[in-house]
Amino acid sequence: GESVGLHLPTLSVQEGDNSIINCAYSNSASDYFIWYKQESGKGPQFIIDIRSNMDKRQGQRVTVLLNKTVKHLSLQIAATQPGDSAVYFCAEKQGSYIPTFGRGTSLIVHP
Amino acid sequence: GAVVSQHPSRVICKSGTSVKIECRSLDFQATTMFWYRQFPKQSLMLMATSNEGSKATYEQGVEKDKFLINHASLTLSTLTVTSAHPEDSSFYICSARQGGFDEQYFGPGTRLTVT
Description:
The structure holds 2 protein chains of 2 kinds.
Chain A: E1 10-14, E2 19-24, E3 32-38, E4 45-51, E5 56-58, E6 62-67, E7 72-77, E8 86-93, E9 100-101, E10 105-110
Parallel strand pairs in A: 1-10
Antiparallel strand pairs in A: 2-7, 3-4, 3-8, 5-6, 6-7, 8-9, 8-10
Chain B: E1 4-7, E2 10-13, E3 19-25, E4 32-38, E5 45-51, E6 57-58, E7 67-73, E8 76-81, E9 90-97, E10 105-106, E11 110-114
Parallel strand pairs in B: 2-11
Antiparallel strand pairs in B: 1-3, 3-8, 4-5, 4-9, 5-6, 7-8, 9-10, 9-11
């Protein structure tokens, strides 16, 4: 699975810009993927998910893209707002197994 | 959506003492609960998985005698950090799910500081 325990990469954007957060996963048998948002001092919150039979899924201001060929997942946030500042984690899951979390990306939105 | 609570949200204890953290699923029955540990600016590290009524399964490197986990009911799991030391200071997060294919819901976390 993904490495955990490593220091987080950081993405800095200006308010109003679109943000793209990337995640590489390791298990080609994973069939379910989730993006979580974690604000400082809080637990992770579910943002959006996607199953392996899809390559794109849209939510409110967020889009998740899945490229199974290169085992890559991305989260796009449109018109990023200061309230979007947080750490974003991807997680991969195979069947009923326990999800494996990626290392996370810290998103900083400058007003 | 489903709600998971943790208590306490913050706790400060002295070195050598034990501290208990509770995780509750408020509006669903959680057959499985997970305990994570998170250091500053790092990802979540799974410590153990507990199924209601059975012994917890610990991840490699996690001392089961130090981190006691009890999942006595479908809505409550507890993590007891025994003989806590300053290096146990961390953010502890629980999550719960109803079934194996169900979504995992996270608690708000507990900040443990051992002095």
